Amino acid sequence: MARLLSVLFVGVMFLSCSRSDGGRARTVRESLDLWTFSSLGTMVFDSVPLEDLRGVHLAGAGLLNRDVLVSGTVDAMGSEGTYIVLTDASARMLVDTTRLSAAGFSRESLRGRRLIIHGEVKSGEKGHIYLMANALRRG
Q: What 3-state DSSP class applies to 47?
């Protein structure tokens, strides 16, 4: 039990040093939620809605810079592992995974797998909506 608590403490302190896209430092609370989501599949403090990909596309500007959970199958991946294309029954979405590369997450094993991704809704060139992944979990 003591080892689990020490691993949890070190993980939270490591994650609390990370930064979001805008350069804003994540709070310890946000970092703990991301860690528990990727490890256990649940969040301690916040409740982030599970959206289908079509709903995220249609909501567009209404969800910009907000956290959402999306679920789908990995359809394609970038050669450098910086993005994946997630597909569900309703749509496809580009997911930027550059925040996850520092954690050493192996993307080669993800092709064709079902994932649940916690991320921020962003707007790219020409207003195309994409997701900036904060954490992911096989699901």
A: coil
Residues paired with residue 84 on neighbouring β-strands, in sequence order: 77, 95
Query: Helical H runs in the chain?
Result: 2-15, 28-40, 53-59, 98-101
The residues, any chain, with a CB within 8 Å of residue 60's CB and separated by 6 or more, are 123, 127, 129
Rounded Cα gap, residues 13 and 121, in angstroms:
25
CA distance 19 to 132: 13
Token pair of 89 as six digits: 């029954």
Q: Contact, 133 vs 100, CB < 8 A? A: yes
Q: Which domains does the chain have, with CATH numbers?
A: 2-40 (no CATH), 50-138 (2.40.50.140)
User: Which tens digit of pLDDT belongs to each residue from 43-71?
Assistant: 777 777 788 899 988 888 888 988 888 99
Single out the residue of 103, 89, 91 nearest to residue 130, CA to CA: 91
